[in-house]
Design goal:
Blueprint: E1 7-9, E2 12-14, E3 18-20, E4 42-44, E5 61-64, E6 67-70, H1 79-92, E7 97-101, H2 106-117, E8 124-128, H3 139-142, H4 145-158, E9 163-166, H5 174-183, E10 189-191, E11 195-197, E12 200-201, E13 206-207, E14 214-217, H6 222-235, E15 240-243, H7 249-258, E16 262-265, H8 268-271, H9 275-289, H10 305-313
Helix pairs in contact: 2-4, 4-5, 5-6, 6-7, 7-9
């Protein structure tokens, strides 16, 4: 049985739905000796501002049950160095590149996006309006419906690349943010970024990371992220890139069935950089067993009706 894993995100056609998530795959080139970048649906780079940033002092990460807490503080080389130093190799390796764009102001988001639009080898822009670890910009836009709308529409005006805002789960009704992004002209939405969280060393009574609070990722967040993808699917028509704790093929399929067109894999890369082959094999095996020829047939196929009937009759 021949299987088609390709997916469409706005004007972008990905050869498959498996994407390396921002911040967990460097700028892609760091993983090039371990993973053939051209086999992935896409890679999303670490977040980039206009200029370089040092990020927060150590300690910046701590392990948690079924996950990790991080407050890197968006350390990065800035968009110009990325275009000069990293993009040529990504191009040469045939990677599909989605750049994670950050900003402290709307103008900065627009300017970084404009620079990327002029560069050869960038395929889409993921707008990071959801990092919980920086004080200025970012999540302040992502926690406000009008802020979300304003950033997306400003970037929409300066680029013809697909624009994919990345939503924060640190809000009450994530679907309303997806709708705001859609109304502003987004081609798709990514969700979720990390959950604001805290770990305390009880002996010293100090927080375990220097920023005091950080973002929780990994398998611990997966059921919440799946629920959020499902809620967004019911409200918006644009494609969803789902993520949060994916660590095996079944996890990825769960997101797709809930409504994601593609999925991103973050924290699992730190545990097993060779995870990709296992994900591909598992998804292909599932498609064969369920006689699904095109992966997009599976998106949003969750069946809630029998459970709802059970609920009404009990
Ligand atoms: C160490 C680390 C750094 C991250 N950096 C970024 C970033 O620069 N931009 C961004 O949008 N998300 C960033 N994220 C969030 C991930 O891309 C992803 O949304 C989140 O971790 C949930 O997926 P996961 O559970 O598969 O890791 C980072 C996550 C981790 C763990």
């Amino acid at each position: 049985m021949s299987l088609d894993l390709s997916v469409t995100i706005g004007s972008l056609r990905l050869k498959n739905p498996l994407i390396a998530a921002s911040g967990c795959f460097g700028y892609g080139v760091e993983y090039a000796d371990v993973v053939d970048l051209s086999t992935l649906g896409a890679i999303v780079t670490k977040g980039l501002f206009l200029t370089e940033r040092e990020g927060h002092p150590a300690p910046r990460v701590v392990e948690t049950p079924a996950g990790m807490l991080n407050a890197i503080g968006l350390q990065g080389i800035g968009v110009h160095r990325f275009v000069d130093e990293k993009l040529p190799e990504l191009r040469a390796r045939g990677a599909t590149v989605i750049v994670n764009v950050c900003g402290t102001t709307i103008d900065e988001y627009a300017e970084v996006s404009r620079v990327l639009s002029d560069a050869e080898g960038v395929h889409a822009i993921e707008l990071n309006i959801s990092c919980p670890n920086i004080k200025e910009g970012g999540i302040q836009f992502g926690c406000s419906l009008s802020g979300t709308y304003d950033v997306v529409s400003a970037v929409r005006k300066v680029t013809s690349l697909p624009v994919i805002p990345k939503l924060t789960p640190n809000v009450t009704d994530v679907a309303s943010f997806a709708r705001s992004a859609e109304e502003a002209g987004a081609d798709a939405v990514s969700l979720v970024n990390t959950f604001l969280a805290m770990v305390i060393d009880v002996e010293s009574r100090q927080p375990k990371i220097s920023n005091v609070v950080g973002g929780l990722s990994g398998p611990a967040i997966r059921p919440i992220a799946v629920r959020m993808v499902w809620e967004c699917r019911r409200l918006v028509r644009i494609p969803i890139l789902g993520m949060g704790g994916i660590a095996n093929p079944r996890d990825a399929l769960e997101f797709i069935i809930a409504g994601a067109s593609a999925v991103q894999v973050g924290t699992a890369n730190f545990v097993d950089p060779f995870i990709w082959t296992k994900l591909f094999d598992g998804i292909r095996d599932y498609m064969q067993r369920h006689k699904i020829t095109h992966i997009s047939e599976l998106t949003g196929t969750i069946d809630t009706t029998s459970r709802e009937k059970q609920w009404i009759s009990s």
